[in-house]
Amino acid sequence: MKRKKSFLVFGLLSIFIFLGLGTWQVYRKVEKEALLKSLERTQKATPENLDSLKSITALQPIFAEGHFLAEKTIFLKAKTHQGKSGVYVLNVFQTQGGKYLLVQRGWASYEITALPQGNLKVEGVLKTPVLPNYFQPSNEPPSYFWIDLPLISQTLNVPLLPYYLVATSSFDAEIFPVKPFPSLTNNHLQYALTWYFLAFALGIMLLWHKYFYLKR
Question: What is the pLDDT of residues 143-157, one digit of tens each?
Fold first, then answer.
């Protein structure tokens, strides 16, 4: 008898947990919808001149006029594009206003050192670097695996801005631009329904257990 009551207690506790997880997924659905709408507005926004901006927001479309600096190139290793291994090519861009911006031009199958020449207009989306996960190797200049702006700034001896630009044009046919916006999906409604269904199914099992099994 004690085992049967323990099963009921465990089942009821599981139902509350499943309902809680389902409700949490509903909240996550609302948050994800807000994020997707924000990203959609950002993608449609008109790029602004970096030199005229007084404040910066994440994933802000901008453009800058100036030129790339020679011998100020780094490569992020172990990057893939359409199943191929390669590197991300990043160069320092000096704006007409005297700012130094790290520009991620895109993916290449090998380390391309050639630079676009002359005064140029670069356009893209500003991003702030994210901390590496546990599995990413440490940066040991000149080998880089993730963007560490203070380290790159010190190594290249350039006062870089605290964000970098994911460019929409690489100025090189062998460098393929990387999408600046993350590809997000909103499957939280399906997850919520799954948890609610599990709670419902377990409730049916408990009712069957109570009215049929315990009365035997």
Answer: 999 999 999 999 999
Half-sphere exposure of 41 toward its Cβ, with a 13 Å CA cutoff? 7
Domain ranges of the chain: 2-40+185-213, 60-167
Whole-prediction pTM: 0.71
Nearest to 14 by CA among 210, 200, 209: 200
CA distance 83 to 85: 7
Burial 33-55 (b: 16+ CB within 10 A, else e): eeeeeeeeebeeeebeebeeeee
Do 169 and 116 touch, CB atoms closer than 8 A?
A: no
User: What residues contact 15, with CB distance under 8 A and at least 6 apart?
Assistant: 199, 202, 203, 206
81-109 pLDDT, tens digit each: 888 999 999 999 999 999 999 999 999 99
Please report, to the nearest 10 degrees, the dihedral formed by the alpha carbons of residues 18, 20, 26, 28 taken in order: -110
Q: How far apart are CA 77 and CA 79, in angstroms?
A: 6
Token couple for 41: 């507005």
Q: Is the peptide bond before 150 cis (omega within 30 degrees of 0)?
A: no
CA dist., res. 188 & res. 186, Å (int): 6
